[in-house]
From TrEMBL:
Organism: Pygoscelis adeliae
Transmembrane regions: 366-388
Lineage start: Eukaryota, Metazoa, Chordata, Craniata, Vertebrata
Membrane topology type: Single-pass type I membrane protein
Name assigned to this protein: Protein amnionless
GO biological process, one term: receptor-mediated endocytosis
């Protein structure tokens, strides 16, 4: 399970010794007055002993003391590093949201930070997914807002205070304890399942219902606006908040496809090449919405999405990603059947051009729409014919023909005056 599990670690904490948790940007010292807001719920881990002049506590909260930690009254002796005597207030931790991608980082199964490297995740997958393991660092306190568009947020396991909770029963027991309500707040409920992704082709993340929360939090950190892409007609990967330059590949797969093995294949065979040193790749299973005639929502279908971006600038933006995408498509053409890949579609956007791949894909959608329209018309005509033959549909009455008098009709009606000239009207085929 460790080879396929994804571990995501929560970054912020509410520790007493973390300077950024105080409005003065430093840990309170002996001559300071410590002030916790009266109505702010908080859980604070205290790692070491502290002498303080005074401390105002919240009405609802907890201090979690490590071995040997605690508080003593300041005896008034001179401290060369603390002569301010200021009021130091604990920062507000209510704004730390579960669906903020900037507050999570990927770690290895050994709890070490994963290097930036060649692999990244689309924005929806930077937040813990359905089958991920969540880690809150040992000897840290925290408070996180779990507001969600879903009633239940499923996870494989949660580790906190050095204890891993990997079963529904263990997690339910923790929720009944005193700390859980102080650490988790909001309308969502975390649920530990203890199960890994059962499909070797991968599992979709499941965070799409909360995409708006993810993007709002992400763009809020950068001024609420996506950066302007350096290419024409940038691409919009599924699960990503902003458009990108580079390449995307969508793969249709068979039951033989193995996502982990294919990811390793791409990393070893392509990403490790020196010419692709500046290329980064995201690969995962996503669900793409299907529509009828390009308008009416119908259903969604799973596919494997590969997103490639590079560190090129100017007119060269995306060109390395484009070359790697072409190599992937060539590999699929040669070995796709053995890899469990039935088909692949590529779209590319670089700083100098926009690939015709996307254009041809759009043209194919238009063609499909025309074909479906013709089929619909044939079905309608067939239905009318069927009803007519069954006698359910009567034929329309024949309209009387419009007929103008002809010159040679004078013989039939002697009272009719003769025309001024019969020229041009002596041909019996000239009939209206």
């Amino acid at each position: 399970a460790a080879t396929t599990a994804v571990y995501k670690q929560w970054i912020p904490n509410t520790n007493f010794e973390t300077g950024s948790n105080w409005d003065k940007g430093r840990v309170p010292c002996a001559s300071d007055v410590v002030h916790f807001e009266k109505n702010k719920v908080v859980s604070v881990f205290v790692r070491s002993p502290h002498a303080l002049t005074d401390m105002y506590l919240p009405l609802n909260g907890e201090l979690v003391l490590a071995s040997g930690a605690g508080f003593t009254a300041f005896d008034g002796s001179w401290d060369p590093g603390c002569d301010s005597g200021a009021t130091v207030r604990f920062a507000d931790a209510e704004h730390h949201a579960w669906f903020d991608p900037t507050l999570w980082q990927a770690v290895s199964p050994s709890r070490e930070l994963e290097p930036g490297g060649h692999i990244f995740s689309v924005d929806e997958e930077r937040v813990p997914c359905h089958y991920d393991d969540v880690i809150f660092q040992p000897e840290t306190s925290f408070r996180v807002n779990v507001d969600s568009s879903r009633q239940v947020i499923h996870l494989r396991s949660i580790s906190l205070m050095g204890q891993e909770l990997s079963s529904p029963e263990a997690w339910a027991g923790y929720l009944r304890g005193p700390s859980a309500p102080l650490q988790f707040h909001g309308n969502g409920t975390l649920q530990v399942t203890g199960t890994s992704c059962p499909d070797k082709s991968g599992c979709a993340c499941g965070n799409t219902p909360d995409r708006h929360r993810i993007c709002t939090a992400l763009l809020g950190a950068s001024g609420r606006q996506c950066p302007a892409p350096a290419c024409r007609s940038p691409l919009q990967p599924l699960g990503h908040c902003c458009r990108v330059c580079g390449a995307t590949i969508s793969l249709d797969f068979t039951p033989d496809f193995d996502l982990q093995k294919y990811r390793d294949r791409l990393v070893q065979a392509l990403l490790s090449q020196p010419k692709y040193a500046g290329v980064r790749m995201a690969i995962s299973k996503v669900h793409k919405a299907r529509t009828f005639l390009g308008v009416i929502p119908r259903s969604s279908t799973p596919l494997i999405q590969i997103v490639l971006i590079d560190d090129k600038v100017g007119a060269q933006t995306g060109t390395a990603a484009e070359q790697m995408a072409a190599d992937i498509m060539e590999d699929i053409a040669q070995h796709g059947e053995a890899l469990g890949i039935s088909s692949g579609k590529m779209e590319v956007a670089t700083g100098s051009t926009f690939s015709g791949q996307a254009g041809s894909h759009a043209l194919s959608r238009i063609t499909v729409g025309v074909v479906l329209g013709l089929l619909f018309g044939l079905l309608l005509l067939g239905g009318i014919l069927f009803l007519y033959r069954k006698g359910k549909l009567r034929s329309l009455p024949r309209l009387p023909a419009l007929r103008l008098p002809r010159p040679w009709d004078r013989a039939e009606d002697p009272a009719s005056p003769a025309p001024a000239s019969d020229k041009g009207f002596d041909n019996p085929m000239f009939d209206v």
